[in-house]
Design a protein that fits this description.
The complex is a heterotrimer.
Chain A (H helix, E strand, L loop, with lengths): L2 H13 L1 H19 L5 H12 L4 H18 L1 H7 L8 H12 L3 H35 L3 H12 L1 H4 L5 H15 L2 E2 L6 E2 L13 H19 L18 H23 L5 H15 L11 H17 L1 H7 L5 H12 L6 H6 L1 H29 L7 H20 L2 H19 L4 H25 L10 H42 L3
Antiparallel strand pairs in A: 1-2
Helix pairs in contact in A: 1-18, 2-3, 2-4, 2-18, 3-4, 3-16, 4-14, 4-16, 4-18, 5-6, 5-7, 6-7, 6-14, 7-12, 7-14, 7-15, 7-18, 8-21, 8-22, 10-21, 11-19, 11-20, 11-21, 12-13, 12-14, 13-14, 19-20
Chain B lengths: L3 H26 L15 H23 L15 H24 L1 H16 L4 H22 L14
Chain C lengths: L1 H15 L12 E5 L6 H16 L4 E5 L6 H8 L7 E6 H10 L10 E17 L7 H10 L4 E5 L5 H12 L5 H4 E5 L3 H9 L6 E4 H9 L3 E6 L25 E9 L4 H14 L3 H9 L3 E2 L4 H22 L5
Parallel strand pairs in C: 1-2, 1-3, 5-6
Antiparallel strand pairs in C: 3-9, 4-7, 4-8, 4-9, 4-10
Helix pairs in contact in C: 2-10, 2-11, 4-12
The chains are: A mainly alpha, B mainly alpha, C alpha/beta.
């Protein structure tokens, strides 16, 4: 089959109304599932899988891809409205999205998140189509040493999400890294910090920690002083996104998409690090740096772009090598195999029509996401009109159900509740939660890749300088660290000057 | 911004936590196999590094707070909790603990209904009527969604089972 | 507590429709998969559930409870009521390799009642296409000539690929395995195979199903399969052809089990349902694509099969000092 024949065959496959129907159905299911905390995109895809067995291959795969795409965007809706990220990747969206919702700008934040998602999704899909072969061979060069240096570099994100105090940010990240070591040891298989509990052998559940850390502290602080701020209605987000605001975020969206494509093509990293990296890069480059974390539109745009930029790119290792980039694509591989399709290089030879149909379907999915997403936003934003004294108990109930549903474990509910108290104490002591989460996400990757590399080299550290990729990331890390130290010193000097100024003006203004 | 005294206490607290982890938790709760060919592969290797980093950061926090010019008290946030707030926090804590222990006995739906209603009363705001309706409808709706649509077996408890 | 529950549910049943004694199942049956979505166990379970749910009058709820190499989900089923409404998808990793290698495991085989093993999954040793190893002998020679330079990946400590590679090397008389080959654990079959594909590790000895697509596309080559006859799509000698029949015991399997106090009628019912489900065409096609052999065993045969496999593995673990401390 020539390229053009395959392309037209693919087009015929997608042009059937059923294709669009299943794709749209998938996106709808995904958006709804993503919007329910605990119902992650992964779970939605796993639940949809059995239904695709009976469908024609192309319909089944389009349905799953729709669920995947919709789920990744859907996660940002509760992250913005109730600070309960539906997926780990949307926790970066909550950093600025929730403050915006509190300021009555939920509508703006949701629209920005949708547009950023769709643009990043489209870019990611185009990258998949154009660069698949090239990026795939690049991704194969990422062995444990390369991964380790990449993760070390990613840890410099902490500086971007630490808020006022970098040291407190590092402490928080340290706590997150420490918590991530709970469970069975990766190499020796022995118990680490499980305190004899069987439930803790598998480690702490991600979603439980995430929701506990982000959503519960809000409930606790509301409950503590509820009478003082009674009947606070945030006034829903009928706020509209302005074209000028959108335009100034475009740069961050493109940057985030590129980061997403790059990280998505490397198997095993996932969307959360990409969202945080994109966020911290946007903050570094933005003239509104000070406003990040306090309700900055560009923060929402960057986080969502980084998050969705991964979606198309994770299909690169899947389609060209047959390697699943994350859990969701692992399930999608199952769907391919059910239909006797073998993901990998052969797919392009034997089933080129399916591959091109997939590509066209992916592009269509970005458009469908825009349409279905804007309907979903209209429906969901009424949540922000709910009075606080109904909203917060409702969020708690939702979190209990959602966290249980992830792994059917009451222990996870306990983890969430305990993490909620920890998160509230951190809030009181001005210890930022985002570095904690980054430490928790990156911790296992950091440690496992380090140890795999040490096994490969029998303890020789020079393996971390074995090629251009590792050296590049080591240099980037050194560069970032220098920049961070300089910026911190400058900020400290500024603060000191302001304090002296305040003191002198106070001394001159008052008697003592 | 917190007062200088609070910041110093936080720094010291972080140091105590790190030291406790380093010299009590790690030796006691991380099993190390007999043979570890390479030191960097020991299960305790990373936890130790992390604890040291946190310890050093704690020292830095303490030092920085101690050396910093005194923040005028008017600017610093107050960490103290008023009596009413303390009572409400205690009640909330009791509700959270109660949720966990009641789950296996009463089942998730009933526990969530009760928790919702208690939180509503605790918050002391209006909308009681709507609140009670939500307290009943929301957990039921979630129950039917998760069991019937998502296929998750929501814990039923031992007293009243739902279909 | 259990009696109250039975009394209550019987009361409820009596109150509603008065069926003589409501016949199992009267409500949804929860099937716990002790591994994550997308793994070999998960795919096998979901493929089986499609025909099963058409046969069983009540819904089947598949639940992933991953963690600790299958221990978390297994313990959840062991501790569940033995009423037939909570069952486990037991797998070679959680119910043969892990019990054999890990003396601290929080459960034993006796704490489960097997309903039936329905799938046998041979093991294949694979290398990437560009590998210098053309045959298993090349690999063995390399280990002997250059001890400590050959690496193998696995899906984790105490998993089938971890044990599989060691069992194969032992059969070829390689001693002091800790020193002679290097184990690179990963998280799951997918990652273990990726490590071989990108050159982090040299070989992988695990279930055929996750490796099948890589073999089909020519990215990897099989050196050996543990089935008794040559497998379709796997152009490699069997262990019998290689003269190592003892390696035929190295196979993966998937089966259904419940808590130890599972009543007889439940086991009987499930026997009928499974016998019908494994006839399903789509299910068979899916399983054989992955190199699996669909073979339903009776409860007694299943127990014997699992115990025999455990005994063989356990003897080897003790002899080679492979226990996880």
């Amino acid at each position: 089959m020539t390229f053009l024949e395959a392309l037209s065959a693919g087009f015929t496959l997608v042009a059937q109304w059923e294709s669009i129907f299943f794709l749209g159905l998938g996106v709808t299911i995904g958006v709804i599932a993503g919007a329910i905390p605990g119902m992650s995109a992964t779970m939605a895809v796993a639940l949809t899988l059995p239904f695709t067995f009976a469908l024609q291959p192309i319909f089944g795969i389009l349905l799953l891809l729709g669920v995947y795409k919709g789920g990744i965007f859907g996660g940002s809706i509760p992250a913005i409205l109730i600070k309960t990220p539906g997926t780990p990747a949307s926790s970066a969206t909550a950093l600025d999205g929730y403050p915006m919702a509190e300021q009555g700008r939920a509508g703006e934040a949701l629209s920005m998140s949708l547009y950023a998602s769709c643009i990043a999704d489209l870019i990611s899909n185009l990258a998949l189509i154009v660069f698949a072969a090239w990026l795939a061979s690049f991704a194969l060069n990422f062995g444990p040493p390369e991964m380790f240096t990449l993760i070390v570099f990613s840890l410099t994100i902490i500086a971007g999400v630490s808020g006022d105090s970098l040291v407190k940010g590092i402490v928080a990240a340290g706590l997150g890294l420490m918590l991530a070591t709970i469970g069975l040891d990766f190499i020796a298989g022995t118990e680490r910090l499980t305190f004899g509990s069987i439930d803790m052998r598998g480690g702490l559940n991600f979603i439980a920690v995430l929701i506990g850390l982000f959503a519960l502290p809000e409930i606790i602080s509301y409950m503590r002083k509820s009478e003082a701020q009674d009947h606070r209605v945030r006034g829903m987000g009928y706020s509209r996104l302005k074209w000028l605001d959108f335009r100034r975020c475009l740069k961050s969206i493109f940057r985030g998409s590129a980061i997403g494509v790059f990280l998505g093509a490397i198997p095993g990293i996932g969307a959360a690090p990409s969202a945080f990296l994109s966020y911290s890069e946007a903050r570094r480059a933005s003239p509104n740096r000070e406003n990040f974390g306090k309700g900055e539109l560009e923060g929402v745009a960057a986080a969502e772009a980084g998050n969705n930029g991964v979606a198309g790119a994770t299909l690169i290792p899947l389609l060209s090598l047959g390697i699943p980039g994350d859990v969701i694509t692992a399930i999608i591989i199952g769907a391919f195999m059910v239909h006797n399709l073998t993901p990998g290089p052969l797919l392009f030879l034997n089933n080129a029509d399916i591959v091109y149909a997939l590509f066209i379907g992916l592009i269509a999915s970005s458009l469908l996401l825009l349409i279905i997403g804007s309907i979903a936003i209209r429906l969901f934003r009424y949540i922000a009109d709910v009075p606080s004294n109904l909203l917060f108990p409702g969020v708690l109930v939702l979190c209990v159900f959602g966290v249980y549903a992830v792994n059917n474990s009451i222990f996870d509910v306990a983890v969430m509740l305990v993490m909620g108290v920890v998160g509230y104490i951190m809030l009181l002591l001005r210890v930022p939660a985002a570095p904690f989460l980054i430490g928790f996400i990156l911790g296992p990757m950091l440690e496992n890749n380090f140890r795999q590399a040490m096994l490969m080299s029998r303890g020789d550290l020079s393996i971390f300088a074995r090629g251009p990729i590792t050296i590049l990331f080591l240099c980037l890390t050194a560069f970032s660290v220098v920049m961070i130290i300089r910026a911190t010193m400058r900020a400290a000097r500024l603060k000191r000057e302001m304090a002296t100024y305040a003191k002198t003006s106070q001394a001159s203004g008052t008697q003592d | 911004m917190l007062s200088r005294r609070d910041e110093i206490l936080i720094g010291l607290g972080v140091m105590v936590l790190a030291a406790f982890t380093l010299w009590w938790i790690i030796p006691n709760f991380i099993a190390t196999p007999r043979r570890v060919p390479i030191k960097a592969l020991s299960p305790a290797f990373w936890p130790k590094i992390i604890a040291w980093v946190v310890l050093i950061c704690g020292a830095a926090l303490t030092l920085r707070a101690a050396l910093a010019p005194k923040t005028p008290n008017a600017v610093a946030d107050d960490l103290s909790v008023s009596r009413a707030e303390g009572l409400r926090l205690l009640a909330l804590g009791a509700i959270l603990v109660g949720i966990y222990f009641a789950l296996p006995i009463l089942g998730m739906v009933w526990v969530c209904m009760i928790a919702f209603a208690l939180l509503l009363l605790l918050s002391g705001g209006g909308n009681l009527g709507w609140g009670l309706v939500t307290a009943v409808v929301l957990p039921l709706a979630l129950y039917f969604f998760f069991t019937k649509v998502a296929g998750v077996a929501i814990p039923q408890g031992q007293i009243v089972r739902l279909p | 507590m259990k009696t109250t529950l039975t009394a209550l549910s019987m009361g409820a049943a009596l109150a509603t429709a008065l069926p003589a004694l409501a016949e199992y199942p009267t409500r949804a049956i929860q099937m716990i998969i002790p591994f994550g979505p997308g793994g070999a166990t998960d795919l096998s379970a979901r493929a089986l559930s499609t025909p099963l749910s058409q046969i069983i009058p009540q819904p089947l709820v598949l639940t992933n409870r991953a963690g600790a190499g299958g221990a978390t989900g297994s313990v959840a089923v062991r501790d569940a009521d033995g009423d037939g409404y909570t069952l486990l998808l037991a797998r070679v990793g959680s119910h043969t390799v892990n019990p054999a290698m890990n003396p601290n495991l929080p459960y034993t085989l006796e704490e489960f009642r097997f309903i039936g093993v329905y799938e046998i999954n041979p093991v294949a040793c694979v290398v990437r296409d560009e590998s210098e190893f053309q045959t298993l002998d090349d690999l063995i020679n390399a280990v002997q000539d250059r001890p400590g330079t050959v690496l193998y990946s696995s899906s984790g400590v105490g998993s089938l690929p971890h044990f599989g590679a060691l069992m194969v090397l032992d059969a070829y008389g390689i001693g002091d395995l800790d020193e002679n080959v290097i184990h690179i654990p990963t998280e799951g079959d997918g990652q273990g195979l990726t490590a071989v594909l990108q050159g982090t590790a040299d070989f992988f000895c695990g279930s055929t199903s996750p490796a099948a697509p890589f073999i089909a596309s020519g990215q990897m080559r099989p050196l050996m399969v543990t089935s008794s006859e040559r497998l379709e799509g796997f152009d490699a000698p069997t262990v019998h052809e290689l003269g190592k029949p003892e390696l035929a015991a190295l196979v993966g399997w998937t089966g259904i089990a419940g808590p130890a106090d599972l009543p007889d009628d439940v086991v009987e019912k499930w026997g009928e349902w499974l016998a019908e489900a494994v006839q399903d065409e789509d299910f068979n096609r899916f399983m054989t694509t992955g190199g699996s052999i669909v073979e339903l065993m009776s409860p007694e045969d299943s127990v014997k099969f699992v115990n025999d496999a455990y005994e063989i593995f356990r003897r080897l673990v003790v002899a080679l000092d492979l226990e996880i401390e």
